[in-house]
Amino acid sequence: MKEALVAARHLERVFDLGSERVRAVHDVDLELNSGWLLAISGRSGSGKTTLLNLLGGLDTPSSGTVSFQGQELSKLSESELNQLRRHRIGFVFQSFGLLPLLSAFENIEIALRIGEWKRGERESRVEECLALVGLAARAHHRPYELSGGEMQRVAIARAIAPHPSLILADEPTGELDLATGTEIFNLLKQITRKEGVGIIVATHDIAMAKIADETRQISDGTFVS
Ligand SMILES: Nc1ncnc2c1ncn2[C@@H]1O[C@H](COP(=O)(O)OP(=O)(O)OP(=O)(O)O)[C@@H](O)[C@H]1O
Ligand SMILES: [Mg+2]
């Protein structure tokens, strides 16, 4: 049987706030294969961000396991986990997270510098990623010279540049209009095919989620479909 890219088993995350216990995620089982776009849809507070943080090793489950290509995250050392987050997982956020003084090209290149890519290899990979997201003509624009949709394309190019196996995108269309958001979802789908990466997108927009290969709906911390 093919090994899943990411597998979560009986995942639970409880936040203990003294007087109150919040079960932000519970009884979650999930598998994602490479080349696949999975959308997790649910209303505000349903547990989407908490779940993505657990899957990306940014947070630790209260119980249950997350495995990445067969490796259980809880068994990795802190430095192994850092390596995994740095080299094998890309993150995309609602607010783009671009550095304002750097051009689109430089914002993408940063991910490769962090990944310790050699200078000569960085330039061609950045150009390839700009082309992949349809922004070859905007390479030297700074974020304030780009539209919201274009900024999100740069953020996606930055996430994909170091050849991660998995991209986690938390509400990447939250600040975009419906038409632009739809374009971004379609772009993510194309990227799963072209780059062979697995992508999980959290969204509150059920219509948008339907573009994905598969949609799971989360409510009060657990999948209801
Ligand atoms: N660090 C934390 N400490 C305590 N409670 C938390 C923490 N993070 C999240 N929660 C709670 O867990 C639940 C799920 O939150 P989460 O941020 O995962 O939802 P979400 O689906 O991403 O919402 P949104 O669509 O608004 O981003 C909420 O009740 C929230 O208040
Ligand atoms: Mg959230």
Which stretches are low in confidence, meaning pLDDT under 50 for 5 or more residues running?
A: none
User: Could you name the CATH topology of the largest domain?
Assistant: Rossmann fold
Q: What Rg is obtained from the alpha carbons, in whole angstroms?
A: 17 Å
Overall mean pLDDT: 96
Helix content: 25-40%
Architecture overview:
The chain folds into 2 domains: 149 residues, P-loop containing nucleotide triphosphate hydrolases (Rossmann fold, 3-Layer(aba) Sandwich), CATH 3.40.50.300; 65 residues, no CATH class. Helix 5 runs parallel beside helix 6. The strands form 2 sheets. Strands 6-7-8-3-9-10 form a 6-stranded mixed sheet, sandwiched between helices. A 4-stranded antiparallel sheet has the order 2-1-4-5, with helices on one face. It is globular and about 50 Å long. By secondary structure, it is α/β, with parallel strands linked by helices. The model has no long low-confidence stretch (mean pLDDT 96). Bound molecules: adenosine-5'-triphosphate (ATP) and magnesium ion (MG). Adenosine-5'-triphosphate binds next to strand 2 and helix 1.
